[in-house]
């Protein structure tokens, strides 16, 4: 395809070429004509000169032909022309080039007719004998009564033709040079016209290929400049619109990315069109692997696929709760809503997935807790009731009566402890009690803790030891801290045989980076805890050995209260234990608490 520029250049060059050829032809014509006129004038002058200077003789004379032929040859040589003498009858009496005797009458020749009429005749005629164009000029000449006739001169026009040919050759060279210059100029002109258009086309193409930064750089105010500006404005507006669309997309994407619920959209064809990170996480799939694929690809989630299938085939809203078993067992709430576009036609179905395992677990724990509490309360009440009934039945032996009353007293004590532990725990769990932080001087704190439990220890002959830095403080809720250590220490005493040892070690852990912490270790040389029970001892009502606990009067709530209180202090609780050697509980608390606000 020829470009506009090439076409324009070609047209300009053809026009220039044509003009130059026409001008050349016209000039050649003018040149030739003026040359011939000059030649004619010269020849007329020569005829005039001849008519004055030649020594004419009578044409009737017998030697006339010889004489005039000789003269004609001599003069012809001199003036480099053919010379012809013709008498008034039109007979040739002398010719420089031909024998007059074989020449026909010349009276009817055009130049002679014209010479008769106007005094000077001229004509250009092709001479077949000489094979060239000849210019004939004739004039009537009368010299007294000696000569009456015509002198005719003729010259070959070959020199003019040759001159013209040479002229044409020079002109052709010049024409070529001019043409080359014209070509260059017209190319530049065409370029200056089409270059800006080409620039605009290039920019428009880049915009089509989504390169919205492309702009036309033109410093022009004409139509082309305006076209450039219009293209730039169009690119601006496209860019703005695109940015708005991208911003919207980003917003929607970040909403999807940050949702804690899973989003799964299935399109009309049953393919997965959208899946957000939460859903990927819940279903343990990667978006790259499932996007654009059929929802049936997720067959490992059998229950989910069933619900999806129902929603997709019926195109109705769906609200279901199902247990999924892959990758782990969990309870899922699945809500599906069909999506319609503005015209109301079906576009797919959007599913919201919520992992409600934690809520269900909590609900289960609640009811389990209620069941446990009722069970725990029932046992001491049954004992109190049983022994009271026996006493009412009329037991008289004073020793038995006393021992029964002692049991009733112990059981009601246990009941009391149980109720106050349950109350504590429910208060702590419902986070109703605020933390009341203050600096606690640890060595004096432990002295007061030991005072509380020292009678208990003495009863079992257990030695209490402390290893606490003198001037160590910690920021804590003192009452709750006390509850933690009284629980841990009474467990240690309870689950240690007579004559054992219970030890408290407090250490200040100074960290280079991060916060300082304080580590408390409560260790005993008691019964220890079997490995299999270790992970569960912090659960409510969990007791390693019911019998062992009953003797100790434990409720199974102590350690879960401790765990909660340590959590409230932003600390860690861990346990190490070996059966029949002893247990060691470690509490690590931050040195300073982070205060809100
Ligand atoms: P309890 O009121 O029965 O002591 P806890 O929640 O305090 O309940 O403790 C849970 C169980 O952990 C106890 O029943 C006991 O078997 C075991 N346990 C706790 N502390 C110790 C310890 N220091 N040594 C051995 N076993 C312990």
Automatic annotation (TrEMBL):
- SUPFAM superfamilies attached to this UniProt entry: ATPase domain of HSP90 chaperone/DNA topoisomerase II/histidine kinase, HAMP domain-like, Homodimeric domain of signal transducing histidine kinase, PYP-like sensor domain (PAS domain)
- Give the reaction(s) catalysed: ATP + protein L-histidine = ADP + protein N-phospho-L-histidine
Q: Which residues form the PAS domain?
A: 248-321
In this chain the Histidine kinase domain maps to 372-593
Bilayer-crossing residues are 167-187
The identity of this protein, by name, is histidine kinase
Q: Which GO terms describe its cellular component?
A: plasma membrane
- Which UniProt key words apply to this protein? ATP-binding, Cell membrane, Kinase, Membrane, Nucleotide-binding, Phosphoprotein, Transferase, Transmembrane, Transmembrane helix, Two-component regulatory system
Q: What class of enzyme is it?
A: transferase
Tell me which species this is from. Answer: Paenibacillus antarcticus
Q: Which segments constitute the HAMP domain? A: 191-243
Top-level division of the source organism's lineage? Bacteria
